Amino acid sequence: MREVELPPMLVLGFESSCDETGVALYDRERGLVAHALHSQVAMHQEYGGVVPELASRDHVRRVIPLLRKVLDDSGCTFADIGAVAYTQGPGLAGALLVGAAFAESLATSLGVPTVPVHHLEGHLLSPLLSSSPPQFPFVALLVSGGHTQLMRVSGVGEYQLLGETLDDAAGEAFDKTAKLLGLAYPGGPALSALAEQGRPDAVSLPRPMLNSGDLMFSFSGLKTAVLTQVRALEGDGQVLTPQNRADIARGFQDAIVDVLVKKSLRALKDSGLSALVVAGGVGANRELRRQLNARAERRGFSVYYPELEFCTDNGAMIALAGALRLAQGASAKPAGSFAVRPRWPLAEI
What we know:
By secondary structure, this protein is α/β, with parallel strands linked by helices. The protein folds into two domains: about 150 residues, Nucleotidyltransferase, domain 5 (2-Layer Sandwich), CATH 3.30.420; about 170 residues, Nucleotidyltransferase, domain 5 (2-Layer Sandwich). About 40% of the residues lie in helices and about 20% in strands. A five-stranded mixed sheet has the order 3-2-1-4-5, with helices on both faces.
């Protein structure tokens, strides 16, 4: 263990909304102190997707070992913790309950308050963990799991919805299209990797709502267009070759990226802001980052991303959000009673 100079407020954060168990310690003065994460990908691969009951049971198994690791890595003890933050929602009800019950029980035993955190707020604020964080206000493109939204972020807790998806989110479209192409779970990263082998413009797919004049999205039709392409090839008596699959993946990814980039640029123009934050799992997509970086260089705006390890769900973003909430004067509640919110619009926080 290494010795540390104990801070005036050390916030312990827990994330358990779906299939990652995350634990982290965040110091309001020094930043992230330590974090640990366990992904359930290997367990769910056998079933082709997340099984909620298995996810909940695995959170129970992982949370204590991860907590011990974080305390060991940081050199801190339970006595140093000033507050406990946890994901209250949205997410899988059973998975949320594991994290919330453990966090509330631990906080009660330590005599410290708790800070329930909105999962998407954690993603929105996660770029603040970087060495060169953005400054408020900024436009945020949130592409996490079942969410694709553009937000104006004026400060902690100050979020204005500018546009969102009308049906499938970008991440859902990636996963569903990956299944159509016979790719294993998790489909999104597998499809992105396959797309790098595809030929540009070999497959032309629609750009849904690209020129709609607003900041709304729709991706379910794009998935259907991929299905049509696959059936057309198979209907001609052809075998879906590895190159066919790579070309379709490339065409699909290019279509998604074109829409996300154009809508993000419009959001910057309409809002008059010059900083864009991209957060969530799809924010790790290399082509999306390449295109946004190129546009930023040409048009003179700044674009920020979380570190790759913080694009997916993690405890660090929850500890950060809890600490920032406290720093903004939010009231931590006494530990004990709690409720989770599997469905929780960000606009309600």
